[in-house]
Amino acid sequence: MLDYHIHTIFSDGEVDYKTVIELSIQKGLTKIAITDHFDPFDKHQRNYMATYSDLKSHFDEIKSYSNDKPITVLCGLETCTGLDGKLRLSNDVIEISDIIITSPHYIEYDGTFEQGNYFNDGYWNAYKQTVLNMASGGGHILGHPEGYLPIRPMETAGTTYESRQEICREICDKYFDKDYVDELSKRLVKSNKACELHGATSTPREWVVKQMAENGVTFSVGSDAHAMNILGKSTRAYELVEKYSLNLLR
Ligand SMILES: [Zn+2]
Ligand SMILES: [Zn+2]
């Protein structure tokens, strides 16, 4: 079993890498990627000031700790891009990273917002354009393209985790249609980038996974665990792997 999307206290995870590794072994995972946030452009990340050398020491510590453990541990990161989808990381950072996940955490959109109105056509078109460009851009995995949508600019106070998930599902159904999924697939295949089967939010929608698989897309299994209760969460992912004979990033 794999889990290619895990956070530690290096970014906004709840435990350190040692705990992640020990718990992963206990859960029977055979290969994991520790993929903390690393995005100098994302002021919402508490470690957005982290430097190349911070990341390098983090990776060195992970490697020396996991060296003699019965599990393979990859050192990676999760980052966002601008509208053009291109990595905004130095070559040094890219070189030391085994896995780079690009995820649409925010959209650089200069239109207007109305609080509580989530169906903002201009914004979701910018979102789709960003994700399409990310699919064509650098990195190995497109992270949660249908989960944890960046609804923050429209959010009203007191929005719960559950209502946020429901809003995201409605946005997917309204805006992310078959033509978009086909175009996204085409770009992922061309750039040899995997689409994430996101454990935390159980996304993408099943018909999207099926359609992407038919279009030749490769997938990656990632829990996106910040809290360790969902570390290795992949039951749905492996059911889909089985059901649609998905090609997995291994
Ligand atoms: Zn993310
Ligand atoms: Zn994440």
Major sheet details: 8 strands, parallel
CATH topology (fold) name: TIM Barrel
What number is the mean pLDDT? 97
Radius of gyration: 17 Å
Task: Please name the CATH architecture.
Answer: Alpha-Beta Barrel
- Overall outline: globular
**In what order do the strands lie side by side in the largest sheet?**
1-2-3-4-5-6-7-8
What does this structure look like?
The protein is globular. α4 (121-136) runs parallel beside α6. It is 38% helix and 15% strand. The protein is of the alpha/beta class and 250 residues long. It has an eight-stranded parallel sheet.
Brief digest:
The chain is α/β, with parallel strands linked by helices and 250 residues long.
Features:
250 residues; 8-stranded parallel beta sheet; globular; TIM Barrel; alpha/beta; binds zinc ion
Topology:
Layout: E1 2-6, H1 17-26, E2 31-37, H2 52-66, E3 72-79, H3 91-96, E4 99-102, H4 121-136, E5 141-142, H5 161-175, H6 178-191, E6 194-198, H7 206-214, E7 218-222, H8 235-243, E8 247-248
Parallel strand pairs: 1-2, 2-3, 3-4, 4-5, 5-6, 6-7, 7-8
Helix pairs in contact: 4-6
The structure holds zinc ion (2 copies).
One zinc ion binds at residues 78, 103, 105, 143-144, 148.
